[in-house]
Amino acid sequence: MECTCAQRDPRFSSRLLETLPGSEGRHFVIILDYSEEIKDTISIVKKVAKTLLNLFTFKDKISVKFYHEDNLVPSDNKADCLKISSKATPYLKDKILQQIENKQPKGEAASYKKIFEETFQILYNDKNNQTEKHFIFVTSGYYKDGSWSEVEKGFKDGRKSLECGVSFSLLLIYDGKLAGATYSNNKNLAGVGCDIEGRDNFMEFELGKDNNHFTINSKISAILSSAKNFNDFDDKVHYIMPISDRFGRGTTIDACKAVVDKSSSSQNPMKGAVCLSFLTNEFIREEWSQTENSYWFLIKRNGQTFIHPKFGQPLGSDELSRTVNILQIESSQSFKDEVYNDMISGVPGSKILSDVMMPISRGPFGATSQNKTLTYTWKAVPKSDFILTIVTSSDYEKSELKITNQGGAEDYHRLDLWNSTYLDDHICKYSETQVAVKDLAVIKFPADAFLRPSIYFKLETNETVQELKDLFMPGETATPRGLFKSIDVFKNIRLSAQATKSMDQYWKNDTSEKAISIIARYIGMENGFFRIYPGLLMNPSYDPRARPWYRLMIAQKGMTLTTPYLDAFTGETVMTLGQVLHMGKTSTEKAGNIAMDFKLPYFKVLLDKSINECETDGACVVIDRNGFVVYQSSFMEKNENSTLENQHIIKMHSRVAKSMIEEGVMIKNYCLEFRNNITIKEWFYSLDHVTEAKKYESNRNCLDYRVVPIVDSNLLLLYINDACTLPENCNCEEPINNERFGYCSNDISETNCECPCIQPVTCLSDLRITPGRLECNPEDKRKTDFSEKWFKGNISELTLCFDPECKKRDTWDNCESFKPACNWCFKFPNGTHVADEKKHCDYSDEECFPTPSPPIITPAPPTTPDSQETEDLSDGAIAVIILFSIIFVCSILGGIYWWFNKKAKRRQRNNNNNGNNSNTTLTPRANSGFDDDQYQPGYQPSGHAPNDRLGSVPSPTDTKDAAVEITMPAVYEERPADENGSVSTTA
């Protein structure tokens, strides 16, 4: 059984590995035996080879060769950087690692003499480089040389040519069948030609022995200090690339020095390294935000980038180092020419650059760009070789939340710690597996706001819940002791709570019938603060900023609708509609998102009520501006093994997608994502430029389609007429290793039809600095665990948090108006109609007539207008939240209607029609959808919408500038500020 703790072996930590080489680094040549002689020991070879790769840092040069028969083969002939000795970048090591895993043994044993000649020649070519040189030979022990004396002579000559300046390590991986003489020949090579104690190593790994990670690490770690002249040891402090603190306190940088016993007579007096860890936020105040208009980065004087917003947060405490030069991220020519040299000199300075192309995130998918004026201000960090730089754009403004509402008592999300009496008064059924608190919103803070992020959840008590409740009372100025990371962090969170508090009352008071279809409403802020209604217990790892919906919305303008995805609280499939919040009425600084969840059938109902073309023979598909399918009819089919999240139009409708690429409707591009251990090209699609409805006739005579944008949103409608019979497929690889996308094909280009994909960059030469190159925002790898079931009672006995009271609705139209919550039962499962007296309204998740003789349900008397508590929510039924000088209004509206962009033309057209409706078609296929057919209670016509008329509908066939406006649940509305520049907090 292998020891899992060996994965954290300090001898292979980045702290020690980056301290040992000093400033110069080392040169390693690794020769791996991949002849058929190792077929029985291939698993040991792979373990040893992977462990060897862990020895190397970005300071080292490496050359890895696979040998069999008379050939020394580079790991990948297509990659130039693998044919020669190159810097041990994470990109290079990742590529070699793939080859180690995938390459299969081949051919007979090779000639040792030839291997030694070629290897020493590689090292000799680097003779003038005053770095440590290592020759690591991983072999089965078998060779085809007839004369061992010739082998030894060649080995000695090679070492002498390098003036004994190379260490040699032979790692024998054998099957136990090796002849005694052959075994001795291999073992005795160590020390041949250069009699320097401690310079060479011999290690054996025999088949059948305990070759676990701990054993392999223990042996190979000896190579670390081989050939080190500790009398000339670099005594400098070495700064290690940022890592994630193991205790969750944030990103840290280690300052390390080697510990050497210089009085020791041993050739290997290295004892280890001593390090001091400090949080990166000690370089700069936490309040300085990393946004599109302001950010900071940290580099060394050699240009190596340590911290930059284009880097993702480190996840592990021993991740591979990144080796990206700042010129590869700040890639404008003006930065290189006017800023870079002055910056790395260490002399403080500032420079304004005009018309710099600045990458702008498109959320989780790709990037775009905008030319801006940027100001770079830099200063050296005292007693280090770091340079800290702050960048602001001409759009930057110092914005803070301006609060006129002083907030009130808050309910913290730890329902499991609430007073039982208080909880019993509010508990309700949220889903089949989760409960919530009715009529109450709760708040949650991000883990990184706490003093002890990794265990804060375990330290919370009943007293903590009450303390947090009191801390948000109006006028309260106290701060909790020993709970939050700092006073500033808590004050920032309290501001967010005060700014969003007024939404609680609106959410509670919104008892309109249409609001029942909304599962949850919430606000997520840039500081990680989260408010949700109805309130529920969340997993400690939940952070809205790490969720895909948040990253998508924060990068958009207008309303944003997500593709269906699994809700973190219930595990059920939901869609999220939301909009970004700004710091102020005219501010461009983003404060967070306001959003709401609903189930997929609700969106289907809205679509079906308004556009009957979606029920005709053609296809009606809703996509977002990344090309992902938000909705199509097949999404309603039950398939336990399928996911609806991030299904691209290329995969779902390949023929249409090919035509969209050919016609320039869908534009393909890539951006570079700098990850912690590898850089990738992320290929994505954009439809951001599509602003007008247009019909496209494909060169395939059997296909035409129409693209119609939905105004003020991230959505487009596709009407597809596809009569083609021959299949057309595009390349779409399934994601692996928790990636969003699959890997690209070898012939990926801007024109081929291929799903969004990722393409690892192996060689630094592929990262050429070119004008117009885009950098993606790094993917947030933090994972949110699904909320666990904590309620011990019987959930089925609880009342629904939002109860549409389906059983009380006595007519078809009254029942169907609450789809998808309610369903009109008028057929048995086999399709047979039932008697009129047995037709009834029931909950949509209940099976209608589960038995052949269902009980007769006597409907309750219809609700009269006098007995109604509220009317449907209108545009005027709003609530306010204040973020600096904005009122954010949530209202529930339904329906989709057509709208012309050119209002003057619309008014003129209406005047010419003298008020007469023109019942035109939505597509060339049929005249259907908006006629005068009436609905009758108790009967369900097919292919028509209820009688809430939408008026005149222009035809897309002759209207080039038509667009669709979707007035689904709106997420905010701006109101004028008062004379003081503030906004009233009363609805």
If you consult CATH, what is the topology of the largest domain?
Beta-Lactamase
Q: How many β strands by DSSP?
A: 37
CATH superfamily of the largest domain: PAS domain
Compute the average pLDDT: 76
Distance between the termini: 66 Å
**What is the helical fraction, as a range of percent?**
10-25%
Q: Under the CATH scheme, which class of the largest domain?
A: Alpha Beta
What is the helix tally?
20
- The CATH architecture name of the largest domain reads 2-Layer Sandwich
The geometry reads as globular
Characterization of this structure:
Residues 852-864 have a biased composition (Pro residues). Residues 910-919 have a biased composition (Low complexity). This protein folds into 5 domains: 22-226, 3-Layer(aba) Sandwich (Rossmann fold), CATH 3.40.50.410; 239-393, Beta-Lactamase (2-Layer Sandwich), CATH 3.30.450; 403-610, Beta-Lactamase; 611-779, no CATH class; 804-842, no CATH class. The protein is 18% helix and 23% strand. The strands form 8 sheets. Strands 1, 2, 3, 4, 5, 6 and 7 form a 7-stranded mixed β-sheet that branches. Strands 18, 19, 20, 21, 22, 23 and 24 form a 7-stranded antiparallel β-sheet that branches. The radius of gyration is 33 Å and the shape is globular. 41% of the residues are buried.
